[in-house]
Amino acid sequence: MRARAAALLRACRPKQWVKNLLVFAAPGAAGRLDDPAVFGWTAVVFVLFCVAASGTYLLNDVRDAEEDRRHERKRRRPVASGALSPRFAAVAGAVLVVAAPLAVLPTGRLPLFVVLVGYLLLTGAYTLWLKDIAVCDIVAVAGCHVLRALAGGVAIGVPFTSWFLIVVLLAALLVVAGKREAELRNPGSGGGRATLARYSVRYLAQVRTMAAGAMIVTYCLWALENHTGPELGFHAASIVPFIMFVLRHHLLVDRGQGEEPEEIALRDRPLQVSLLGLVVLVGLGIYVG
Hints:
The chain crosses the membrane at residues 38-59, 79-104, 110-129, 150-177, 203-222, 234-251, 271-288. This protein is mainly α.
């Protein structure tokens, strides 16, 4: 039982829960995280998305077990390696997928319920169909990131600006395109992913460059045109770590290190320093300026 519990936890991919921190983006940008009630409820939304995402990871691993066994790294996943039976993983995944949205219903927050169900439907469509269609697979994964960011806002009733949504979408495209490019740069790292054969490193690099350029311009316009007074100085200064973060990500992808974005986010110190500087300056602009 202890071994099965450990295998189940690994199959839930706790390292990838870092993606769900996006739920804090909208409340943070709205200057609401200093409210204990708002922060607490956003933390609950984070947990709900971790539960939902873990359920989809389990179901995805059951479906892709054969492909994962041909992958030099993914073959060590619990389902592919045999540490976790496909039946047990499927049942656990289904329970988690159903439990997350059902937990929202008693709160009466219908918008959050709709966004969470939409996230599960999109991830399900990706697992069953969209992951095998070039371009659609990139857009689908990017859409999941956008839904995470939307969930944090709708949970507390924060209105969204076009600036926020555009930056989140472009950042998601940047990360996903970098992931696919890294898989192509590392022979055998795709693990039989059907769409990789339809891409080229040059094409994905162009997508990454396009997304990064548009994202930097959008962020600069937001920082310089939508703020006044003391907050303008903090937001203008945040452009520097923002650009450094993007440039560092480009460098890591060119080195073939972008296959697991959550890994480089947790391990690359220059990337972490740039992100910390960005968060601090934006936070000062919102909560102090």
